[in-house]
Amino acid sequence: MKNILGIILFVLGFNCVFANTNLNLRKLAESKGIYVGTAIMPSHLEDSKLVDLLTNNFNYLTPENHLKWENVQPAKGVFDFSGADKIVNFAIKHKMRVRGHTLAWHYQNPPWLASLKTDKEEAKKILKNHIMNVVGRYKGKIADWDVVNEPLDENGRLRVNLWNVLIGEEYIELAFRWANEADPNAKLFLNEYGVEWFGAKADAFYKLVKSLKEKGVPIHGVGFQFHIDGQYAPEPVFVAMNIKRFKELGLEVHITELDVRLRGTPSERAIEQQARIYSELMKVALAYDIPVYVTWGVTDKYSWIPSFFSGYGYALMFDDQYKPKKAAFAVSEVLAGERPKKSLYEDSDTESVIKRPLPPFRASKAKKVPIIDGEINKGEWDGTYAYSLMYNQLDTQDRKSTR
Ligand code: XIL
After folding, report:
1. What's the predicted TM-score (pTM) here?
2. Of 57, 60, 69, 68, nearest to 24 (Cα)?
């Protein structure tokens, strides 16, 4: 009798765990015709619990780091596809679509490239050779490419990255043309952060993309990264309006790197807010036929957030024990429900949303009273924080002025 009870309890317990980790977002996503994706490292594929979560919940993969220059071309002319191959082969086996990330970026370049000093023609040759090799290798296997990543700086100006310095701003359209030559069927994207709703950078991004389209550059869409600080929830109406204007250029909009970071040990309220952000974005995605919704990782265990944003974590839909969080359940509910209508956003009173106060940046008093004369003199701003107009997510320390 005791044994039977034991077996019953064991089966019940097993089912609970199983039901918990087995939300099956993938099936729900497929019923709505959307890809739910995640960023992944080859080493994660050795983790069987993670593989379970992956195959049950996702139908789209982005190699998190293994298609970046530092991994793919660590020495000039020497290509290493071993990491990316593992991910692409896994995706093919599990009938998942793959996003290639990325062909030109200011970050994660191998030392030989980062310190390269050469003339324009040679720089073009190097970029073209890389793109032809990498896109060519995965022709027909990688469906979407982030051709250029983060081309704008915090204030919406063209970033002075290595390609801009060596080739000039033409590097962007050249990269798209070469990627198109290497795989004419791949969809090509410009990927950026801080452009997901309205602001100076979003407007600059829109102008850049529009001019590329007008020049006949083979660009098929834009990627909005959506690395969000859970304290500052995006207004779904603004996100929707922004998506709408990019779509009106004849482009696809993909959500490419979503995570919602929370500070410290998150409160219940913060966790609920996080769930709301994830699910509101899925609602917008469904309303506007956004075909791809990618989160930047599966579980908090492997998330990039704690090492890049000190004091933050808890950013993904599954916790570090691989359990689905409120965010995962909220997203699954949206996927299981009726498709939201555009009118939800287009009929709303945006004026009242615009008037809501914005959260301030961190502020602190200057030690002396600064003289505002257009000159930043030594010691004048000591004790204050200095921010550029937009917030740089890869350099997110609150910066004390040193001048
Ligand atoms: C991050 C990775 O997640 C980290 O593992 C790596 O150390 C740094 O880059 N925007 C991007 C991604 O386009 O490539 C970045 O990924 C996160 C910010």
Report:
1. 0.86
2. 57
What is the per-residue pLDDT across 187-236, written as a single tens digit (0 to 9) for each?
A: 999 999 999 998 889 999 999 999 999 999 999 999 999 999 999 889 99
- Cα 160 from Cα 153, distance rounded (Å): 8
CA of 379 to the centre of ligand 1 (A): 35
How much distance in Å is there from the Cα of 57 to the middle of ligand 1?
22
What gap in Å lies between CA 46 and CA 33, rounded to an integer?
29
Residue type for position 294: V
Catalytic residue chosen out of the listed positions 173, 196, 252, 257:
257
Residue 224 β-bridge partners: 192, 255
Distance CA 218, CA 135 (A): 15
Answer yes or no: 150 catalytic: yes
Q: How far apart are CA 84 and CA 62, in angstroms?
A: 10
- Rounded to the nearest angstrom, the distance between the alpha carbon of 64 and the centre of ligand 1 is 7
Nearest by Cα to 285 from 224, 351, 203 = 224
